[in-house]
Amino acid sequence: MKHDQKPSILTVEDNDHTRQLVSYWLKDAFNVHMATNPEEALSIAKNQAFDLLMLDINLGRGHNGVNLLHTLRKQPALSRTPALAFTAYAMPSDRKRLLDEGFNHYVSKPFTKMELHKAIETALTQTSLAA
Prior knowledge:
The protein contains 5 helices and 5 strands. With 131 residues, the protein is α/β, with parallel strands linked by helices. It has one domain: Response regulator (Rossmann fold). 31% of the residues are buried.
């Protein structure tokens, strides 16, 4: 990411209301690319690198963010891209399971705009420090 550009985030969320809210909350600080399902996410991601992957876990119709993360991470441009799980799965064991599955960060729904921005900033900062 260049310093004069906003970080680019691929967000995958199947719920229309959540997608609209997240897009509205993030649009001023980030370049947000929205996908409604794994197929759309993979189509978007094959032509672009991102600074962060933000994936809902329950994507409906038998799809989930864990499988999508594993598929996205097979792409060389995304193999080390930090991933943030945002999900209604809010038990401590859910957080641990998702981190064990390869997510770098986690935020549970419902979340506030401030909580979401903090989670994203933490993910981006920790990644740039580790690079």
